[in-house]
Amino acid sequence: MALIAKGQIFAAAALAMLGLTAGSAYAAPQCGNDAGGFATWLESYKAEAKARGIDTAPLAGVKYDTGVIHIDRNQHGAFKGTLDQFMARRAPASYVKRAKSLWKANAGTFAKIEQRYGVQPEVLLAIWGMETGFGANSGNKSVFQPLATLAYDCRRSAYFTNELDSALEIAQKGYISASQMKGAGFGELGQTQFLPSKYLQYAVDFDGDGRRDLIHSTGDVLASTANFLKGHGWQAGAGYGPGEPNYRIWNEWNRATIYQQALSRFATQIAH
């Protein structure tokens, strides 16, 4: 969920209530702006998390991630340039062709999802394509190190502490094993890049196998994305271009204006 504000290498959206930690109040460990205090912070976080009933075993071996800090400090550079330039990078003509092919190959799944959630197939295809190239670039880096680093970082410590709590909850409850919780490097999960709190809120088991699998199941990926949009007010069958009812919902997916414009244009190209 791209630009942190979802989610998406950038993520988005508002904070979620957690199953394990909802209503829990605790004194946050001291944040920092460099690697110096990270080890101390991590031990403090682990102790407090354990007191709140959270299993912190997945944090074994976690270190301060300078790479994710660099990305976080410079993410706006990814949204520079004109809309045409952005589209050429993130939604080229080859992606439009690929999206149409995927729509045809999965027509039944898209029809069922639209019937249940009211979100048009081209909308889901646009998000799927722009986030990970239709699942080809979901990432293979554990979510725990970047999330711990960003939870420690003073810039948005509370926001990412919530995401770290959520990631640990996903592993603890067995929704996804800790070893499979990998993404593009910013703590996101799956083919449309859900931040962990959004997984807990919106991920669904659409294929009926008993798991909410946003990593391997196309049905779960697309239905969960549709559920996110519906949960943020998507109106079934309504337009999603500038000035139309659903255009404002793009902002819930990504806060970057150029990203919203690109998703709208990409979806329109897929539909025609």
TrEMBL record:
GO biological process terms on file: peptidoglycan catabolic process
Keyword Signal included in the entry's annotation: yes
Keywords for this protein: Signal
GO terms for MF: peptidoglycan lytic transglycosylase activity
Signal peptide: 1-27
Domain of life: Bacteria
Stretches assigned to the Transglycosylase SLT domain: 38-241
One Pfam family recorded for the sequence: SLT_2
Protein name per its UniProtKB record: Lytic transglycosylase
The organism of origin for this protein: Pseudaminobacter soli (ex Li et al. 2025)
